[in-house]
Amino acid sequence: MARKNKTENKLKNRIKEVIKEEGVSAILVGLWVDVNKATVSAWNSNSSQPTDKNLNMIGELFEIDNRMLLDPQVRIKTGLAQALQKELDRLTKIEKIPIYTEKIDIKTGKKVKANNDELVLALKKFAEEFKK
Predict the structure, then answer these.
(1) Is pLDDT above 90 for 39?
(2) Which SUPFAM superfamilies match (predicted)?
(3) Residue 26 · residue 41 · CB < 8 Å
(4) DSSP readout, 6-72?
(5) Using the 8-state DSSP alphabet, how is residue 131 labeled?
(6) Has residue 8 got a pLDDT over 90?
(7) DSSP assignment of 63-118, as one string?
(8) Does domain 15-69 have CATH number 1.10.260.40?
(9) In 3D, which of 24, 20, 23 has the Cα closest to residue 32?
């Protein structure tokens, strides 16, 4: 599972703003979605985010596209994906680093195919340098 970097853009929602724009209460939202007011409060402060199902129910309540409930994630195109693909090709073809390795699944005790940690780390390092 991918881990989030603390410096990454954190997903933010606009639920509080939409509630205010529509002139309804957070209590109504909580009742509609069937969650308690502490959950709605956490969404409003962006300390947590609704599940996709709950976001969809909120969109239904306000009769708006779910994307209108989320702040846009502004990004500038730098060509990172293409540069990473070239680096992946170089690492696997020239450096001969395998894409997958075998690991022991903790739950089953069986060998499973997993992403090669060495390759993942090399790509992350490349991306950091590319962004500079």
Answers:
(1) yes
(2) lambda repressor-like DNA-binding domains
(3) yes
(4) TTSPPP-B-HHHHHHHHT--HHHHHHHHT--HHHHHHHHTTSS---HHHHHHHHHHHTS-GGGGB--
(5) H
(6) no
(7) TS-GGGGB--------SHHHHHHHHHHHHHHTS---SEEEEE-TTT--EEEEE-HH
(8) yes
(9) 24
> CB neighbours (10 Å) of residue 89?
10
Q: Which amino acid type is present at position 5?
A: N
Residues 108 and 105: their CA atoms lie apart, in Å, by: 6
Nearest to 131 by CA among 76, 81, 80: 80
* Mean pLDDT of the region 76-95: 95
Domains of the chain, by residue range, sit at 15-69, 80-131
Rg, C-alpha atoms of the chain = 21
